[in-house]
Structures are given as C-alpha cells and as structure tokens.
Design brief:
homodimer; 588 residues; alpha+beta; eight-stranded mixed sheet; five-stranded mixed β-barrel; 18 helices; 30% helix; 24% strand; globular; Asp/Asn-tRNA-synth_IIb (chains A, B); catalytic activity, acting on a protein (chains A, B)
Chain lengths: 588, 588
C-alpha cells in the first residue's frame, strides 16, 4: 500500500475519499463491535473506526492492537457526528472507516507514555530517546530546528554565500576553552583537536577570495557543563569580505527575518535596534538585555547625593554608582522578608546589600525610608518613574556590581510578576564592545570576543598604550535576553594582529609559534573582512519555547557529558589504544 | 565605498555607468602614462585602465600596485576598442576607467602564481591553501560543491524531509573500519568515537517517527589512506519510513536531477536504469559499471569449448568461465609487447594470464590464433561483436577473477583509446546485492553493506541455512564508474536482526553487549524503513571533473593524514594529557 497522506493531515477535503495511512497506535477504545483507534504520525493524530459492517477482518485485527503498534490502513474518510466532533484536534471533524489493516510491527509496553508533559527523569528520557522523540512536543521542537536551518540555507544561498566545510580534525590551540583531542595513529603522541569554532578557517577562506562563506558547523568544547551547554553544539557561521559592521548586521537582519518567517510564520521588524555595550550595561545592567519590558536601571546619584544615608554617600564619594529599578506594584506583592531574600542572590555579584523603599501615598516606607525627605521622595520618584504601590530597589557599588545586581533583579522580578510577553520576540544589537575584559581566572586581560577582533579605528593606537580602554568593531545579536550570536570585523593586517597578540601577553616568539601560520597568510593580500556566528541550538530553544538546549537536540549528552542510550563514552579495546601509542594512567 | 558588482560580472549592461569593484591585482601592464590592471574576484577578471586624463592620483597609486594587492576602485565602464576585445574573457568587451582607488592591503610575492594549471607539489599547495584556493579552478570546484549541497537542501526540504543533526561524539563500535577516538575528561579511561556514519542514529530517528530524515553529515574513518580517501568525509544522508526500495530510488532520482540541474545546468533523464548486481558483474565485470561505453564482457564458453586450447578447456571443465572483451581498432594501436604489459596489471586480481587475438581479414593473428579454426573464428567474432581491426582479450578463470580482470581492462583500454565521452554523466542503479561477502582479511563472511541491511523477503530463511546465498534489498547508485552512494531497506524486526548477527558470527551475548541498546529499540514499534547515503566529496569531484577528492575539499589532509597549513596533528601540553588520564607510550 502506498501512503496517500499523513494522519495529521486528514481533513474535510478527503471526505468520502479512500486514504492509505501509516502510523502508530496512540490509543484504543474497544466498545465490543465498534473499535476506535487514534493513529499517530509526525503530523498528528486521526481517529480510525472499525466495525463488523465496515470490515470484519479489519475489526479482528483491531482487537489485537496495542499502544505503539505500527500499522498501515486503507479506509474511507467520513464526517463525525456532530456530538463526536473534537474541536481540539486538527482532524477532529472527520474519522476513517477502516476496511483493510496490516500490522507492520508490534510493540512492547513503553517505559513512559508517548504524550506531552510526561514526568520522568531526564536520563530515562535519554535512554529511550527514540520514544521520547515520538512525543509531539519533541517532534515539534526538532521540526522548528529543521525549519531554521532550512531558512538559513535558502537565504544565504540566495545571497551568493558559498557553503564551505572546514575540517573537524584540526590543530589544538591552548587559547580559549579546553579542546577535545583526537589521538593520531599515523603520528603516535600527536593529536588532532576538534574545533571550538571554524574561526581561523573561515578567515582563511576570505583570504582565499571566496567573498561570502557560510556553514552550519558543529563546534566542540570540553568545558564543565552548565544548564545550556553541550560538549558539541552547532553554529550558523558566516564571514564576508569588504563589508562594514553595519552592512553585516543588515545582512544578518535579513537572515533573521527569513528564519522567523519560515520557522514560526512571525514577521519581525527591521532594522533591529542597535545599542552600545555601554548603554546596555547602563540601562539594563546586562550585555544581553531583555528588552521585552521596561524596569530600566536609573542613575540615582543626583537624587540621593548627600542624603545622609552612609552607604549611598560613601559609594558616591568613592566614585561608585547608586542606581535603582522600579518593581511595578511591588508594594503589595512583596513582603520585607521576601525582598530581603532576594538580597542573597546578588551577593554572588559582589553586592554588599540591597536597599529598598515602598512608594506609598504618604511617601516612602521601609527600613531606609527615614533618610528621604520630601524633596528626595519627589526627585527619586521622578527619576525612577515610580508611582504609588511600586517598590524601588537600590544598589550602591562599583559600576560592574551595580549593573550585574540590578540586571539580575530586573529579570528575576519581571519573571515572577509575569510582566514579560512570552509571545514577543525582541531582537537587539549590542555593539561597540570593549576589546578586552579582565579575567579573574587568569589575572590578566583576555580578548572579550577572540584575538582576531578589529579594534575601533580610533582605538588601534591604544593597543600599545592602554589596551583595556580600546573598544572593538564587534556586535552581538540578542534575543529575549539571550545572546543569540555575535561577530566582529576581523584584523586583516599583520602589524595590528601582532600588536593584538602583544596586548594579550604573547611574546613575539609565542605568538609566532602558535599563530605564525595564520599571520603569514595576512602577508599575501588579505582582504578586509568580518562575520558572525549564531548559536543554532539556542535559537531553536528560544523559538520552540524550551528552557534547555537538550530539548532541541536529537541525541544530546546528559549533564555529565554522557549519552545514556548508547552509553558513550565507553571503554575501548586495548588493541585500539596500542595502535594509538597510548596508555591509561593508573589511578590509585 | 560600497561594491556595486563583482569584477567578473562587469559587462556591456554597465556601459557608461559608474561601478565600485573590490578585488586582487592579477597583473599589471605599465605603459608609462597608461596602466592596465587585471582585477580579480571570485566571479572573474576585469581590465582596469589608469591614465593621466582619467585620474592622476589613481594613476600614481596604480604605479605602486603589485600582484595580489587588494584594492577597491571606483570607475566608469567603457567599451574596448575593436582590436582590444578579448573574446576569451567574459568581460572582454569592456574595461573600467579608474578615477579613484584605495589600496586595502599589500601582498608579498606569493610562492606560486594564482592561475590554473600550476605545477607545484601538493604539500606546497596545502601549506598555502588560502592562495591555492584563489585559483579559478579551485574556486569553481568549491562553488560546484556548494551548489550540490544547495540543491540537496532545497530538494529534500521541499519533499518534507527533516534536517536532523546526529552526534559526532558517540560510542565506538569495533565492527567495520577503525574509529577515531576522543578521550573523555569526565570519565578517564573512557572514549567517545567519531562516527563512521550516522547509520544507527538515523534508524533510531525512524523509530522516533520522523518519517523522513536527512543530514549533510561529516563521517570519520581512521583507515590507511588511498587516492580518494580522507580521514573525514561528507555524506548526504537520508532515511525514510514506510517506503519500498523502488520508491526510495525514485525519490533519490529526483534529488540527483535537482543536483545536476543546479550544479551544472545539466538535465538528466529519469528513471535511471537499474541492473542487478549479477548483471553488472556479468556484463561489465564491475559492481560500479561505467556505462558510458560498450566493450561489454561476453561469455565465450560456447564459442571456445573443446577447442584444444588447454587453458580454456580446463577452466571450463572446472566450472570456470572464459569471457572476452573487444578493443575496437586495437589491432593497429597495440603491439604484442604493449598487450602483454597489461597482463601484469591483472595479476593482482589473481589472473594467471591474458589470452588475445587480433582480428584480421584472414581470421585471427597472435600467439593463440592457431587454436581457432574457421568456425571458431566466426562464432567468436559473432558473440564478441568483433570486426576486422579489433583486438579480442580473453580471461579464463573463476567468475570473480574473470570479472575483476576484464572489468579492469575494459576501463583501462577505453581510457587509453579516448572512447569515453567525458561530457556524459551516466547514472545507473545496481540492485539486489549479495547480503554477505567473503573477507580475505577476516577469513569469514562479513556484511556486504552493513549488518542492518534487510535480506530479500524470500531469502530471510537462508540466514539460518546458507546465509552467503542470500541477496539484500540494497542498491548502489553509480556515476561514470564510481560508486556515488548506496543504501538499503533496513531490518526493523528484532528476530531478523538477531539472525543477521548470528550469521555474522556474533554470539547472542556479544551481539547483546554491542548492539543490545539498538535491538531494544526494535521492540517498541519500529516502522519499516530504509535509506541511502551519497558521498558528497566524490559527487563534487565527478561534477568538477577532478581526479582526487582533495581538489573539492577546502582544507584536506595530505596523503599521510596531516594538514601542512596548521600542522595538525601536533603535540599537546602535558597538562592536557594529564586531564585526560593518558600517557604516551615510550617508544624504544
């Protein structure tokens, strides 16, 4: 039998027609001489009817069916009776009278039901991933992911990008995150590394004159895992020659527009808003601001200066900041105890405390209300944009601590109060990043993006004097408070690249040893170029409205980087290690 | 300046218009007060003109330009004088009067010229791959490759396939070729393996109900390298549920049609011819026959039986074959010495000798001519389809040796005689393969495709009795004598899969240990399914008319699996090995 359509697509246009369907038994209702089967495939569910009158042999087969059996059926589509119409189902107005059925495969009882909102452990879901993926929400998530890549290919192909694959067996570079290594058999004691990104290869492709490159590329980082990290992840990676940062952003906006249309049928407005990194930190306390809601950070220095509240006064005297956010309607919703509980969360950012007042019709209330006289109350309310019933939260500290703390609280309160429109997709560019950031881990400045990022033209000379003051021709694209991707104009001249490595603490020799092969390439007519990479996993996660990238990856690793289905990683035969010239260290 | 078009696209439609171009200096002709520059980008070359009259400042800049400098120019397009028209160039009727030019980057002298047909070592080309790739033939090869993937995505997306990524960090399976291993840091002494293909994962996706899957997937095999093998290669991988082998082939033909159209603007005819594996071996002596030309193998048993030539007689008595091919016009083109030299080549297939006759107007000539009487001559000429001036080559041996030897000679002579139409693309399906083949290496039968291939329905019971006689529901797609890809209907029932493992020499325990996790999946309602994989590298190689897949891979490994540009694989820091719990074996 050749299938004529999918179960989920049977509708009134098929009335009185014969259809052949193939799928899985979702459930069976046996009324003796009448049996109803819900048959499921990737497009949805349709109701099958079996009876003596329709077909005796088919009825007998239906009697033996159990959940998840695979069957093919031939039958006629008919209208349901009015009282049997199910408005919740796409196919709810019709059903199929089955006169022929074949069981294609049987099924044992599955360890969990094939339905949405199951409540089983992640590891059980991963061990039986092939069953987990049968659930409509997982099918939908992977279909959205597929539509994203579909739009990406189509848009970039149409815009003269060339899809070029870069190597996965490449050279280890100790800079950055930890590499996954691959021992070489031909050269014992030597290793390939799996790429953390195709960065240098895509730059070389610009050196090779391809002008516009893209790739949907797997990347690998052997990092300690966090909620939304996986050992392997996928990047929509592109690079172009002879374009400015602004032009690359505009091109990317076209891509985002195409993706949103294809994946969700959502129209987004372009141009997408651009704000500088400084502005993002000042207004939202975050370099990946969620701009779906207000509650912006307001500078209170002018309003609270010399008010007599020591914490504020001293912070300002020491060159620090006092800033505030307003929690709308927070007066009633939060008790003193609940507010103070939030204080704990911001300690990790180095905040020493959280000051707050409730706005009442009489002025302010709360522990520090007494410091505010009538004029202070008026000015604070005005600058903060607060009204009666609101809660105002203050943090007084260095710029960074203030931003991190209030940036965190802004999102946390907004989520609790449900003031974020979950159906909105708010993109924003964050541009003009610092070129370097201070690494607490390495006690030195490291590249904020990577060492190949071009400084702003006017900042090139800072590389040799005050590199940490330099800003970069770099840009991140942010969606709903998540960094969706980022990019930059790259360095295409050897002398600037050498200065960059020097500013990063490389000696001439160590830079040459590690990146000499790349800097040599810059000597042979390298064009100005730049690019961008978008995180496909995160993009899919946001569009599928999931909270973990595992939910949009077919076979992800669990939180301990293992894969419960195939049981990878695993021990291997001694012969395999011998061929690689490797020994496993004895552990005591 | 914003580029208005590519150099290679400037034509008469731009006459008298201003253009902005960006590219590389291909060459400079300096006539003093008149300078011509050939400017190159990925689309081609256009001639620039500089003079005092057009622009003095631009002329001065042009004086300093050297090969491979990167420039941007603004200028006006004008017709060339009649005697200056270059019909070999796409842009040969026009040139650009440059009134503004900026040097974007300088270039040192390149180690080889940026032009086609260079004569330098492969390793030098790979070390400066970014320069090698600037050459038009390399640009063209990678653009063809990109167009193939473009067509693949478009066709499969349009046909409801879902693009799903499968893991690259997975479990090692000792079956098949050698795995690349990736040591785990979280579980010291344990290893991931890079996949040799997504085979089991794509089958699981059918178990998960995705119905139609595809992926352009990187695959990894740590094999000893041969001409057209690379440690990593790319597969166009697809799998579908509920379709027959024939339906999958028809679907694939649509894909091939789309690819040929997009990549080369070539229309191919469908349906593509199907021949069985037996027929391919009998007629062409090859399971990947080049059907662009005839010279088929003819069975000579009837014609030469009991002729008195011992080699033929004994072979036939022992159940062997005597077959022949005809080399058209071979009488004059090949001397006895040249023919006998060919004999050396077929010894590797186990052939003991090559018998031959030249067809003259008097009958046959050559060492064994005397064995043929008039009747033999007539019958042989008739069966072989030979005429005066042709050379007939005989091999007498087992079926396999005869096929391998004559199959080889057929192609070798056809190439030498230039009788193959190099502009033809001849696809053919080879179907109904044996399920097993005897491995000289392992001294046992191994799976001809892989252990998940479904036997022909009528051969399922042979699995338990005479497995080597079973044929499979498998199919290869062959292009111009190369295996472009292959696939099969897979086993979807546990009992058949168990029998298959048993026939391959697995014990119940060893099968369970290695593939238990997969066989468990077959218990939960696995649909009938099948699929196919096409080798992208080889496909691109054939369409770009190259003779090595390295020519269609941006950054390939050399013949010793190393990469001369980045110098991978390389030694790594002891710290990296310590974290993995690994030691390198001392070599004596």
């Amino acid at each position: 039998m050749e299938r004529t359509t999918y179960c989920g697509l049977v509708n009134e246009s098929y009335l009185e027609k014969e259809v052949v369907l193939k799928g899985w038994v979702q459930k069976r209702r046996d009324l003796g001489n009448l049996i109803f089967i819900d048959l499921r495939d990737r497009e949805g569910i349709v109701q099958l009817v079996f009876s003596q009158e329709i077909g005796e042999q088919a009825l007998h087969v239906a009697e033996e069916l159990r959940t998840e059996f695979v069957v093919e059926i031939k039958g006629k589509v008919r209208s349901r009776k009015d009282d049997a119409i199910n408005p919740k189902m796409k196919t709810g107005k019709v059903e199929v009278e089955v006169h022929e059925i074949n069981v294609l495969n049987k099924a044992k009882t599955t360890p969990f039901y094939i339905e949405d909102d199951i409540n089983v452990s992640d590891d059980l879901r991963l061990k039986y991933r092939y069953l987990d993926l049968r659930r409509p929400e997982m099918q939908n998530a992977l279909i959205i992911r597929s539509k994203i890549t579909q739009a990406v290919h189509r848009y970039l192909d149409d815009n003269k990008f060339i899809n070029i694959e870069t190597p996965y067996l490449t050279r280890s570079t100790p800079e950055g995150a930890r590499d996954y290594l691959v021992p070489s058999r031909v050269y014992p004691g030597h290793f390939y590394a799996l790429p953390q990104s195709p960065q240098l290869f895509k730059q070389l492709l610009m050196g090779a004159g391809f002008d516009r490159y893209y790739q949907v590329a797997r990347c690998f980082r052997d990092e300690d895992l966090r909620g939304d990290r996986q050992p392997e992840f996928t990047q929509i990676d592109l690079e172009v020659s002879f374009m400015t940062a602004k032009e690359i952003q505009t091109m990317t906006e076209g891509l985002l527009k195409a993706v949103m249309k294809m994946a969700l049928n959502v129209e987004i407005k372009t141009p997408i808003k651009r704000i500088t990194w400084n502005e993002a930190m000042d207004r939202f306390g975050s370099d990946k601001p969620d701009i779906r809601f207000g509650m912006e950070l307001k500078d209170m220095a002018a309003a609270v200066a010399k008010m007599g509240f020591k914490v504020f006064d001293q912070t300002l005297e020491n060159g620090g900041q006092v800033k505030a956010i307003v929690v709308p309607g927070g007066t009633e919703k939060y008790s003193r105890k609940q507010i103070e509980a939030k204080q704990e969360y911001i300690k990790r950012f180095g905040a020493k405390g959280l000051a707050w007042v409730k706005v009442t019709s009489e002025g302010f209330s709360g522990p520090i209300a007494k410091f505010f006289d009538e004029e202070h109350v008026t000015t604070v309310k005005e600058i903060a944009g607060a009204k009666v019933g609101d809660l105002i939260l203050f943090v007084a500290d260095t710029r960074k601590v203030v931003a991190d703390s209030l940036g965190y609280l802004r999102v946390a309160f907004a989520k609790e109060l449900n003031i974020i429109d979950e159906n909105e997709f708010a993109f924003v560019w964050v541009v003009d990043w610092p070129l370097f950031e201070y690494s607490e881990e390495f006690h030195r400045y490291i590249a904020a993006h990577h060492p190949f990022t071009m400084p702003n033209e006017e900042d090139v000379e800072l590389l040799e004097t005050e590199p940490h003051k330099a800003h970069a021709q770099s840009y991140d694209i942010v969606l709903n408070g998540y960094e969706l991707g980022g990019g930059s104009i790259r360095i295409h001249q050897r002398d600037i690249q050498e200065k960059m490595f020097k500013a990063l603490g490389f000696t001439k020799e160590s830079a040459e040893k590690q990146f000499g092969w790349f800097m040599d390439a810059l000597d042979f007519g390298f064009p100005p170029h730049g690019g961008l990479a978008l995180g496909l996993d995160r993009f899919a996660m946001l569009l599928a409205k999931k909270d973990n990238i595992r939910e949009v990856i077919a076979f992800p690793k669990n939180s301990k980087a293992s894969e419960p289905l195939t049981n990878a990683p695993s021990k291997v035969a001694t012969k395999q290690l011998d061929e690689l010239g490797l020994e496993i260290e004895e552990t005591n």
